[in-house]
Design a protein that fits this description.
Length: 818
């Protein structure tokens, strides 16, 4: 049996449509000496249908076609059932039946009329189904559905297949103007597009003397471009379609504005720590050249701008370096400054292609000694005796260094330091001596090096290179940078230094300068954080602290970005604080909002610290107090875990101080809880990959991040289905993936998996794909079953259960206090 039928047409989205398939020829496979053929329709012999093949007709739709083949007059060896109807159950249009047409429907789901004893497959796949529903069809693509009859000993020797191609269904597009999509036009010759009945004459009237007629194509699409430029102003476009003596008209209002909108309405220059820097003259959108002066301690700056045209493209370049694109209203990355004169250009390109460039000439003071170390991306900060003020509002005066350096706890002077003041800040500047550092590392592997400043204020470390950082990692050595604000262990073994080199033009690691900062956050961020804490009802216990590590070469500065494992950072807690009043450490965003990062309170010498572990190489950190006590968990088994995890801002209640612990959890809620619990939340989430998750969904960021780390996955049709409840085995498997993010070498053999599951009476109910993950959670003592010797893998997971799993995951891996 063979044949192929393609059914084309046009329809609107959401219609249920039926496609009748005829003209298919059935030819049976037979064995033996066949002498007689007779075809039957629903058990009744078909007149003159006695040949070795039969072609379906309209009369056969929905019928069962049976072929009786008699070999030697007695033995029946063939039987075939027809596929007569295909039903489109969901449209995904209007869309094109084939690119680039734009108006016919391609189904994303198709149901083939079920026939007893018949199996179905799609696009040559090896999987055959009794259930004839296929999801995930690609719009604009033909799909071939193949059927076969289940063979028995008395039927055919092999299956008989019918190939049917279903693309779209019937219908006709209405008259419509689809482009320009917006009513505001920024070009003088816009393209007008739309749909109409195929073959109709479409007349487009824009204004007196500006009109044209085109013909709609086979799929009903039409397009028109005026021959003359449209003057700026308001228009009412009328489109009339005529076919077979009938006509219809639609209208659309347009405003044409081709004026240059490439200017800025605002431009702000800031120091690397967020302190505003004044421009001369004061910014005015019509002025394109500005100057500013900064002290030597300002080694990089950022710019933020507001364009007149919100859709304008903004690019920034420093010292003729590569262009960096910056979103409207946001802040650029750090722009490194050389000692002396620097040129920053802000280029604005509006939607019409007009370009305006703003030039900022920034002069950075030299150090007192005039030394300039190009390997560190700029001069080191040396105290100045000058009492004159600069545009950053500060003077620089000398004092003692307060620097202590050690190797394995013993004094070893491999770095020197100097203290200065800049504005209202004290700054301790450290210079590492690479020769002495290398000498210390040559003494053996596993060396523990430390640079500590006992002075209050900010701390800046220069002199290291990416090559030195790699050497530290290769030798298993550690380097801690610390002052009274924080301890920053350099995460050398968890950074992709090759990626850093690529960002800097494939520079050699030894030529890439490393700069490390421990500093009080900018006044703006601190104010925002305090305001957000007051509004959200938690207490900010520590003034936010910036921990930063940057790499620079040839005037360009980058960061390592996300680490390949959790790294430690220590934030000093205020003297005399009750360590029991610490809820969690947080990462502080520029707007003052905070995200939980896994935190343990620890004591070093006589000082308490918040030991924070996360995947970031830099950020602004603080510590909060945010106790929770939900009314409806006071006597619940999950009380301690629910209140603990909620206090860390990892999950929300359900209103009126309730948590609803026994309510089933959805996939979207789970994503939010696990991403927040692991400290993965961030504002610049990756692009969402699921078509059923919109940008306005409250869980969009969490789902995108959880999918980025392979904690949650979509279904075969590409969707996420955030409102679906998750089963216990699904939840346990997702927790297992999160566990592997922390314990990267976690894995079990088949024998270990079977042994761990064997003690549970319902282990056979665990799906094959989830067995190893659940066994891994049992071994880690994160999963404890559901009652005596039961896993209940197919039961739905509750909010309390997922909270308990997250709490055990974080405690087991020592990311939070036990």
């Amino acid at each position: 049996m063979g044949g192929s039928v393609t059914i084309d047409g046009i329809a609107k989205a959401g219609q249920t449509l039926t496609a009748n398939v005829t003209g298919i020829t059935y030819t049976p496979d037979t064995t033996g000496n066949v002498s007689t053929y007779q075809w039957y329709r629903n058990g009744v012999a078909i007149t003159n249908a006695t040949g070795s093949s039969y072609t379906l007709t309209a009369d056969d739709l929905g019928a069962t076609i049976t072929l009786t083949v008699t070999a030697d007059g007695t033995h029946a060896v063939g039987s075939v059932t027809s596929l007569a109807t295909a039903v489109v159950t969901k449209g995904d249009g209007p869309a094109a039946p084939s690119a680039p047409a734009a108006k016919s429907v391609t189904p994303t789901s198709i149901t083939l009329q079920p026939v007893s004893g018949q199996e179905y497959s799609m696009d040559g796949g090896l999987t055959w189904q009794d259930s004839p529903t296929f999801n995930g069809l690609t719009p604009g693509t033909d799909h071939t559905f193949v059927t076969r009859v289940k063979a028995t000993a008395t039927q055919m020797a092999s299956g008989v297949s019918l190939a049917t191609t279903i693309r779209t269904s019937v219908g006709e597009p209405a008259l419509e103007i689809t482009e320009p999509a917006s009513s505001n036009i920024t070009v003088s010759k816009p393209v007008f597009k739309g749909t109409a009945a195929p073959g109709s004459q479409v007349t487009v009237n824009i204004a007196d003397g500006i009109t044209g007629t085109v013909t709609a194509d086979t799929y009903g699409n039409w397009s028109y471009i005026p021959e003359v430029n449209l003057a700026d102003g308001n228009y009412t476009v009328k489109v009339t379609a005529t076919k077979d003596g009938k006509s219809s008209t639609v209208s659309k209002g347009l405003t044409v504005n081709t004026a240059d909108q490439s200017s800025l309405t605002g431009l702000q220059l800031n120091s690397w720590n967020g302190t505003p820097i004044g421009l001369s003259p004061a910014f005015n959108g019509s002025t394109t050249k500005y100057t500013a002066s900064v002290t030597n301690s300002v080694y990089s700056v950022t710019v933020s701008s507001l364009p007149l045209d919100p859709s304008a493209k903004i690019e920034v370049s420093v010292n003729n370096g590569p262009w960096q694109q910056v979103a409207s209203g946001t802040t650029s990355g750090n722009l490194p400054l050389n000692v002396g004169t620097n040129t920053i250009v802000v280029k604005v390109t509006d939607a019409k292609g007009h370009v305006t460039e703003y030039t900022l000439t920034i002069t950075r003071e030299s150090s007192d000694s005039g030394d300039s170390d190009s390997s560190s991306g700029g001069s080191t900060t040396t105290p100045s005796t000058s009492t004159g003020s600069s545009s950053s509002g500060g003077s620089t005066t000398p004092s003692g260094s307060g620097i202590e350096t050690s190797v394995n706890g013993k004094d070893d002077t491999f770095a020197t330091g100097k203290e200065s003041t800049s504005g209202d800040r004290k700054v301790t500047s450290v210079q590492v001596d690479l020769d002495k550092l290398n000498k210390a590392l040559s003494q053996g592997n596993g060396q523990k090096l430390a640079i500590h400043s006992s002075k209050d204020g900010d701390m800046k470390v220069d002199g290291l290179t990416a090559g030195a950082v790699k050497q530290l990692a290769d030798k298993g050595a550690g380097l801690e940078i610390s002052n009274p604000l924080a301890i920053y262990p350099v995460p050398g073994g968890k950074m992709d230094l090759s990626a850093v080199s690529k960002q800097l033009g494939n520079a050699a690691l030894g030529d890439i300068a490393v700069h490390i900062d421990i500093a009080r956050s900018s006044d703006t961020l601190i104010t925002n954080a305090k305001n957000k804490a007051a509004a959200e009802g938690y207490e900010l216990l520590v003034t936010p602290v910036d921990l930063d590590m940057t790499f620079s070469h040839d005037g360009k500065m980058v960061r390592a970005g996300q680490l390949n494992g959790y790294a430690a950072k220590y934030i000093a807690l205020p003297e005399g604080i009750d360590p029991n009043r610490i809820t969690t450490g947080v990462i502080v965003n520029p707007d003052g909002s905070v995200f939980h990062v896994p935190t343990v309170v620890t004591k070093i010498n006589s000082r308490y610290y918040a030991l924070i572990k996360d995947l970031r190489s830099n950020g602004s950190y603080s510590v909060i107090w945010n106790p929770q006590d939900f009314d409806d968990v006071k006597s619940h088994w999950g009380k301690a875990d629910v209140n603990n995890i909620a206090a860390r801002l990892d999950l929300a209640g359900t209103g009126n101080n309730t948590f609803s612990p026994d309510r089933n959890v959805t996939r979207s809620e789970f994503s939010e809880i696990v991403v927040a619990g692991l400290g993965l939340k961030r504002q610049n989430a990756p692009q969402n990959k699921f078509p059923d998750v919109s940008d306005s969904d409250w869980y969009r960021r969490s789902v995108a991040i959880a999918n980025e780390f392979d904690i949650v996955r979509g279904y075969e049709d590409g969707n996420f289905y955030g409102d679906r409840q998750i089963t216990r085995e699904q939840g346990m498997a997702m927790i297992a993936r999160a566990y592997k993010l922390i314990e990267t070498k976690a894995a079990l053999s088949q024998e270990q998996t079977d042994a761990l599951l064997a003690k549970y009476a319902d282990a056979k109910k665990v799906s094959a794909w989830a067995r190893e993950d659940i066994a891994l959670m049992i071994e880690a003592e994160i999963v404890q079953g559901n009652g005596p010797q039961l896993l209940s893998p197919q039961s739905n997971m509750t909010r309390a259960e997922v909270t308990a799993l997250i709490a055990r995951l974080l405690k087991t891996t020592n990311l939070i206090d036990k």
